[in-house]
Amino acid sequence: MSRSEAGRGYHHGDLRETLLEAALARIETHGTEQLSLRALAREAGVSATAPYRHFPSRRCLLAALITRGFVALGAQVAAARDRAGDEAPDKLVAAGLAYVEFACSNPTSYHLMFSPVLGDFSDYDELKKAAEASYGVVLDIIEELLARPGAPPLTLIQASGVMWAAVHGLSSLLLFGRDRGAPASERSPLASLAVLERDPEEALRLMMRGLTN
């Protein structure tokens, strides 16, 4: 560790988080194209080589950011499920709403998580585990739903795909529609968007009716 790093009081792990936060802020402003470990080092006031102790490459830094996003998403969805009570339909709606709330509260992370910046996740074991774990929270709820009497004749893969399409689509519309202004008429797409913004929970209940009823 250089004198400048020691002077800033970094301990093991602190610089890693500092770099991740700085990277996320830079992506929010400039996108991923201008992301540079050396630039982040300058911003953090550390030596040019210091970031490489935590992230061997720019791709590893991006993978760490995406991993962190999926861990946070999974925790938020699981917490919402646990607060929802014992009924599987209520759990599913709560989990879906938590997904949408995460996306809207963390747009930079969310866009990065579902961007093609890394391609597939096959080179990053922690990332794969985090993504599968966050999805697994919802899969467990859907398994409960499909085991109920009168459940729709869907496979787990079909039902989870429907659920994902609903929450991802709603999230994307809400993010896309930010600051679009008031709808010009009832036939404007913005009129539908305004309804979704006013009550995303009701929108999810309508979209998931085939799974939860």
CATH class of the largest domain: Mainly Alpha
Count of discrete domains: 2
Radius of gyration: 20 Å
CATH architecture of the largest domain: Orthogonal Bundle
The largest pleated sheet is described as:
none
Distance linking N and C termini: 60 Å
- Give the overall pLDDT as a whole number: 89
Estimate the strand proportion: under 5%
Number of helices: 11
Which structural class matches the secondary elements?
mainly alpha
**What shape does the CA trace take?**
globular
Low-confidence stretches: 1-12
Helix fraction, binned, reads 55-70%
Structure description:
The model is unreliable at 1-12 (pLDDT under 50). The protein folds into two domains: 1-56, Arc Repressor Mutant, subunit A; 57-212, Tetracycline Repressor, domain 2 (Orthogonal Bundle), CATH 1.10.357.10. The chain has helices at 3-7, 14-30, 37-44, 58-83, 88-105, 107-113, 125-146, 156-176, 189-198, 200-207, 209-212. It is mainly alpha-helical. The chain is globular, with a radius of gyration of 20 Å.
Summarize the topology.
Elements: H1 3-7, H2 14-30, H3 37-44, H4 58-83, H5 88-105, H6 107-113, H7 125-146, H8 156-176, H9 189-198, H10 200-207, H11 209-212
Features:
single chain; 213 residues; mainly alpha; Arc Repressor Mutant, subunit A; Tetracycline Repressor, domain 2; 2 domains; 69% helix; disordered N terminus
A few lines on this structure:
The chain is mostly helical and 213 residues long. Helix content is 69%, strand content 0%.
